[in-house]
């Protein structure tokens, strides 16, 4: 993300291995992100129902086609059993 200078590591609780590095926002950066999300929400609300449905259908198809990868990531990130992570993705 532009302007982010600090990050923190996300660790696999089972191995301690670093699996990701994510932004560590200060208060101003967090407020700016919330403002951008609010703006995006207003933009989303201004689109047609058909357009939103098309986007959500595409998102759903991507979730299904990547379900196993997402479940594995949930397991690594949270230590959740894989069967539970798969159910969560479903």
TrEMBL record:
Highest taxon listed in the record's lineage: Bacteria
Keywords, comma-separated and alphabetical: Oxidoreductase
A GO term, aspect molecular function: succinate-semialdehyde dehydrogenase (NAD+) activity
Enzyme Commission number: 1.2.1.79
Annotated PANTHER family: SUCCINATE-SEMIALDEHYDE DEHYDROGENASE, MITOCHONDRIAL
GO biological process, one term: gamma-aminobutyric acid catabolic process
Name of the protein this chain belongs to: Succinate-semialdehyde dehydrogenase [NADP(+)] GabD
Domain Aldehyde dehydrogenase: 5-89
């Amino acid at each position: 993300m532009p302007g982010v200078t600090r990050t923190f590591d996300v660790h696999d609780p089972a191995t301690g291995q670093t699996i990701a590095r994510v932004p560590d926002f200060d208060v101003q950066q967090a407020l700016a992100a919330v403002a951008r999300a609010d703006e995006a929400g207003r933009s989303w609300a201004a689109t047609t129902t058909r357009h939103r449905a098309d986007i959500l259908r595409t998102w759903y198809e991507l979730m299904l086609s990547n379900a196993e990868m997402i479940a594995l990531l949930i397991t690594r990130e949270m230590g959740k059993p894989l069967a539970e992570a798969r159910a969560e993705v479903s």
